[in-house]
Amino acid sequence: MLQSKNDRLFNATNLFFLIVIGLVTLFPLYYVLVVSFSDPAEFIRNKATLFPKKWSLDSYRYLLSTDSFMRAMGNSAFLATVGTVLSLFVTSCLSYALSRRRLQGRRVMMLLILLTTLFNPGIIPPYLLIRDLNLINSIWSLILPALTSGWYVLLMKGFFDSIPTSLEEAARIDGCNDIGVWWRIILPLSLPSLAAFGLFYAVAYWNTFFTALLYINDFNKQPLQVLLQNMLIDSSTASGGTAAVEMTAEQQIPSETLKMAAVVIATVPILMVYPFLQKHFAKGAMVGSVKE
Amino acid sequence: MDSQMDTAGKTKIESAYKKSLATERRRSIWNGVKRDRFLYLLALPGIVFFILFKYVPMWGIVISFQDYSPYQGMWASPWVGFEHYIRFFSNPDFLILFRNTMAINLLSLVFFFPLPILLSVMMNELRGNKFRKTIQSIVYLPHFLSWVIIVGITFLLLSTGEGIINQLLVAAGLNKIDFLTNSNYFWGLLTVQSIWKDAGWGTVLFLAAMAGIDPQLNEAAKIDGAGRFRQIWHITLPGIRSVVIILLILRIGHIMDVGFEQVFLMTNGAVSEVADVFDTYVYRLGIKQGQLSFSTAVGVFKSLVGLILVVGANKLAKKFGEDGVY
Description:
The structure holds 2 protein chains of 2 kinds. By secondary structure, chain A is an all-alpha fold. In chain A, 73% of the residues lie in helices and 0% in strands. Chain A has helices at 5-36, 40-46, 58-64, 67-99, 106-118, 124-132, 140-143, 150-161, 165-173, 178-189, 191-206, 210-215, 224-233, 243-250, 255-277, 281-291. In chain B, helix 4 (83-89) crosses helix 18 (292-319). The termini of chain B are far apart.
């Protein structure tokens, strides 16, 4: 069937607006890249340019040779890898157990989990708990309270519900117990779902800021986002004090290019996993959207 | 006599029967637990997590009814009843916090909420277009950036010193605008940031729902002479109706929540009057100034209102024949 004139007009207008939206979304990121690769002195002189007149890797070279920055990267990398693995483990174990209809007490457990999604006690009681557990200034204070959430458990349980029970029965006949079924049958079948959940966990851990603000005072144990806050946002105020001051005092690199190089480096890990996982987003999207 | 014996015997038999039923039941529960011991073992880490990190803090709410002192602890601190709550409601801060929270959330409800729907309709109309994947990758991306980074980028673009927007304004012969330190712009700025970060991501669910709409409906409508706009209005939008309603419920339930990180990072002395929300207030008074009991009371108030709103909105949705969230 031939496209009518109206249809073609509609498509063209639609495409045009979507391209504009895409460009508006990309522009800030593009500009961050440009600034980060600009020659520091040149950037001071010309300030805003849409294309660097003089390319330079100085800011990157400098950041990657700074102890505090690399240490914060290391802390965040640990947080993201260990945290994600543990979170997937705890979430999938519990979700799988709850997806088995014969499990006694299942309804009560699910109700109690649902309640935690409806009511949260705020900031102070968890803070007191972490303090009483002696986890202040420990990286575990950023992992343990974030291991799973009611939403994730209920959503993953929904996913496990959809796996046919005949597979479980077959594995049982072959001599698997419940743990074997979970590990050898269920998990391999749910890899796409695990990938989506894994990405969300990893991004959440990588972006951990608020709990680190609450629980980590030791400069050496700070994750990347807290260091970035010191560099990007707090650097002008007296309270910032730590990383940014230490950095600019050590060497005369103008802060703007350095800041944006830090932004780029902090974003690269996310961009690296992103293309591989994009096709699983829809599956995990239920989680992302309802968690907001 | 006989009949008396009869009834006595009957009740005896009955009670014995009941007892054996009860033991039977207990035994079958126990058998079930034994049979599923590996399942319980799998569930154990998660159950411990929920008890320790979700239910123990709920118990911590009691300090909002005490004059909690860290040295005396939760068990020995003196009880003061609703004193902290009353103090909070009679405090002028309360109205400011409430106003700011509502303003930020209502702006988001009016300007942010419809955008993902519009955007996903537009993207859905790119059926079979290779360009669609690219545009999806682009608009999803900012969702994965942290608020620290997004606020940092905002400063890069909008600061009155090096900010490119202000330099463009100057180049065009206009005056600089102090976006970051003028309280008139603060709420709008938060809304624009949220749109840039999450409007694209918000399309994922709608697109998934649209993919489930039977294409035959569109074919039939086309044969009946419906143009693209009529197809969108009568087929696409009704197809995502329930998803929209569910998300709206969740949104309303969170009307007392303003993203702490975003507001906290964007705040500066010049805008504090319009920037203070419940969470930043709790953080400042509780963590920074150590008024633990008072700020816990503020947090509990906020959560309670949120709970009532979610449950209420959900009930309302069910009344309109939708599934609701629970």
